[in-house]
Amino acid sequence: MYPLLILLTLASWLIQWRLRSKFKQYSQVGLSSGLSGAEIAAKMLADHGIYDVRIISTEGQLTDHYNPTDKTVNLSEGVYAERSAAAAAIAAHECGHAVQHSTAYSMLQFRSALVPTLSAVSKWVPMLILAGFFLINRTPLPLLVGIGLFSLTTLFSFITLPVEFDASRRALAWMDQRGVVTTQEHAMAKDALWWAAMTYVVAALASLASLLYYVSIFTRRR
């Protein structure tokens, strides 16, 4: 199990590096339509009849996200003002989540329903797992509870996958339909979003590997 965890950690680092490299490369490619990330986001929301979602500029790099609680599309400063294939991909992807929300996409609803529970228990998981390791020969209870709570994290990671892939699919389909990107720019946007999706895939696999490792310790004790 250790070699697998090490391999997944290495894969995660490489994919993150590749993702940043791709976005840096595509950020230097000016968008032929001349639209900024914020303008693309506004256009995509309007085309889907969504007028109650705000578009906000947020600090950081690759900090872009959609917040279903306050209905905001949060775009990093570069993406918000940038007019590039990378900015178009990110802005449209985050709006894809807004479209999911407005259409009651089931997997997004499922993921959102798990957030309060995960927020409440996440701080306890490391302590329970660690306590479980130390107390494994006395009582399996802390480790068992830790495994149960950690399994929710793993479930969340895998539920995130269809949510992210679907948001990218919606984004690419809309950009193609509306002609806001050329064929070449569309290919760049697709490539960038694919690498972004791979970060979630590796994270889910790493979470599953960790869960199986904890379970193996528990079963060996028995």
Automatic annotation (TrEMBL):
InterPro entries: Zn_peptidase_2
Key words, A-Z: Membrane, Transmembrane, Transmembrane helix
Pfam families per the UniProt record, alphabetical: Zn_peptidase_2 (PF04298)
TM annotation in the entry: 113-136, 143-163, 192-215
Name of the protein: Zinc metallopeptidase
Organism: Hymenobacter glaciei
